Automatic annotation (TrEMBL):
<dbReference type="GO" id="GO:0016757">
    <property type="term" value="F:glycosyltransferase activity"/>
</dbReference>
<feature type="region of interest" description="Disordered">
    <location>
        <begin position="482"/>
        <end position="502"/>
    </location>
</feature>
<dbReference type="InterPro" id="IPR022622">
    <property type="entry name" value="DUF3492"/>
</dbReference>
<feature type="domain" description="DUF3492">
    <location>
        <begin position="14"/>
        <end position="275"/>
    </location>
</feature>
<dbReference type="InterPro" id="IPR047691">
    <property type="entry name" value="PelF-like"/>
</dbReference>
<dbReference type="Pfam" id="PF11997">
    <property type="entry name" value="DUF3492"/>
</dbReference>
<dbReference type="Pfam" id="PF13692">
    <property type="entry name" value="Glyco_trans_1_4"/>
</dbReference>
<protein>
    <recommendedName>
        <fullName>D-inositol 3-phosphate glycosyltransferase</fullName>
    </recommendedName>
</protein>
Amino acid sequence: MHVLSGAPRSGATRVTLLTEGTYPHSHGGVSVWCDQLVTGMPDIDFDVIAVTGTGREPVVWDVPAHVTRVTPVPMWGPAPGGRPPRGRRARRLADLYDRFLTALLDPAAEDGFGPALYGLADAAAAGELSPFLRDDRALGVLTSVWNRPDLAVREARPTLHDAVTATVLLEHALRPLAADPPAEGVAHAVSGGVAVLPGLTGLQRHGVPLLLTEHGVYLRERYLGYRTGPYRWPVKAVVLGFFRLLAEETYRRAALITPGNRYNRLWEEEGGADPRLIRTVYNGVDPAAFPPAGPEPEVPTLSWAGRVDPIKDLETLIRAFAVVREKVPEARLRLFGGTPRGGEAYRERCEALADGLGHGDAVTFEGRVDDIKDAYAAGNVVMLSSISEGFPFTLIEAMSCGRATVSTDVGGVREAVGDTGLVVPPRDPAAMAAAALELLDDAERRRRMGEAARLRVIEQFTLRQTVDSFRSVYLELAAGGRTPDDSTWPEAGAEELGSVAG
């Protein structure tokens, strides 16, 4: 399904945003960021290729007229059409898939990943890849590769069930290869992973430069998710091998990488990205849209805003609040934000935890709020408990509102906060509770930290800075891109890298 919004304009630079689970079908920090870029650049024509769940998700953002096309690419839901190849084409595709799987499982064969991936993309464009992967022949190829005597995965004795599970996961992950790739302008992937696949195909077929922005580290989040996933090691070896090599291929072929923080930069360099092609561009907010929040609540209150999701680690926050309430019995914890489809069980688990700790009466899940500023104003202290973040919007928005914050030391959080908030280790309820109590006990310190936080946003993290940076990048890449040998491309200074390593 294509959602048409406007007509292309002659002479306008064209940018194709590549998204997954975000803009324009979902709310959240990355979606806000996409909307800011799009609405902030009416001089640029945008298309969107959006990897979605089922393809039935509604467009929830007001898409402006200079977004000329939105193409959803469902990863789940009904299987794509097409037929598996026969005869010689079937044998060629089976050989190609063999090389692809071998690259995922054999360190000595990893150089074959890129050529195999682009061969699979051609099969996807012909309507053959998904039907092939749903056919018994694909299971046979994987079983054969798994049982080679020189591969360590063989020792785990993969089962037929493992083969079916791994093949199903790969079939869904590779569906974006069938999308019509960008054929002109610039492709801008707003995350790593499967959203990048149409961009890599557009680069391979049409030479369209690929820009990558990672807010969180996609590969790290896959590792975190699959660590506790319900799969045996042979399945994890295949799927995580795919995500790892996809990340490396993306880093290797991107014309420019613009991480949202310096922490992500280290992951990208470790994954093979050329340091000369990395430019940190921070998220920004409009300070006028997030003015000082005004008087604090009379009842001591901790507030949180975000997506109800395991990666936000609300369980640690609830456990920390239980410690806070032992010292401040009248304290409240107010949680603002929607629960994504499929996340209901996690929210129920968090509510059960609050009840089980005896604090269900003081912990409220308040859902989406019409004005997010109200969520920050609701607390004396704004909390962030995530186990993975990029450069979180909720944090810099709360800072712009002049609220003191307690945040976990993940991703770009420390870069955002500086010395204007307290930063604690992730998954440490005791440390989080101690920091919250420290601030709840000192109104004057909260006031000073809030004022300093707003000033920090005004000086370093404004929306105008972000939009201007990306407009410059778009125009430069559309005019011919850059290469690692181009000495005019800005590089990070040694002190920047040293500050992260320290």
